[in-house]
Amino acid sequence: MIIRIGSSAIATSRIVCQSSNATSGCDASNNNGGNARTSFGSASQTVTVGGETQRRQNYWRFHQSYYDRLRRDQIRLQSFNYYDYGAPTYYYDHGGSSFYLNQYGADLLTRAVNDGYEEGYRAGLADRQDGWQFDPENNDAFQDASYGYDGYYVDVGEYQYYFREGFRRGYEDGYYGRYQYGAYSNGRYSILGDVLSLILDLRRY
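Above: the chain sequence. Below: its structure as tokens.
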């Protein structure tokens, strides 16, 4: 017997798609009124009753909570107001290029690393509890990497890169039950300042 796990998905372009029987993706309208196609792994995965379902209970629990956070973030964006936060005051180097940011952009990328670490820790912990293999890059949250992105001052590709850098380290800590790259305080997992600086070397100019 095969059952299908269906859930809401929000793609990197901030598209919301709800489907209970999608097999490869869905069509949705983006914020600019256009159409796009997206697929989200857990919206199309099938699992066998009594087999993988039981083995991956914590995995599915994490993914449902991630989708819930994505939906709440989408609601937040609906009331997001754009402000001019001024000229760039920071820069960083990545991939042989220099990028210039104002304070808002710098804060957004910093948050990307921290949010990535927290989501990664939860994902790694879930896989460890399920006795699953170490596999951060096949996680839907890693592939999506858009949680917290609002579309201003920072390119989505840059945001996703730094989210994933945080996610990798958080997943490793969660999977091995340690805090090598981060810490837990006041109900949140967050990356250590020294580690953050190694990932995202923001400098004033």
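The first strand starts at residue 2 and ends at 4.
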